[in-house]
Amino acid sequence: MKQFLIAGTAIVIAALAGQTAGAADMTGVTSDSIKVGNTVPYSGPAAPYGTLGRAMSAYFDTVNKAGGVAGHKIIFISRDDAYSPPKTVEQTRKLVEEDQVSFIYGSVGTAANLSVRKYLNSKHVPQLSVLSGASTWNDPKEYPWSMSGIASYELDGKMVAQYILKHKPAAKIAVIYQNDDFGRDHFAGLKKALEAAHKDAMLVKIATFETTDPTVDSQTVEAQSSGADALYVVGIPKLMAQVFRKADGLGWHPLRFITYTGSPVAATPTLAGLQVFKGTISHNNLKDPQDPQWANDAEMKSYVDWMNKDYPKPDIKNGYIFSGWSLAKSLVDILQLCHGDFSRENIMKTFTHLHDFHPAGGLPGIVLNTTPTNYQEFSSMRNMEFDGARWVLLPADETM
Question: Domains in the chain, ordered, with CATH?
Answer without folding.
Answer: 9-151+299-351 (3.40.50.2300), 154-284+382-398 (3.40.50.2300)
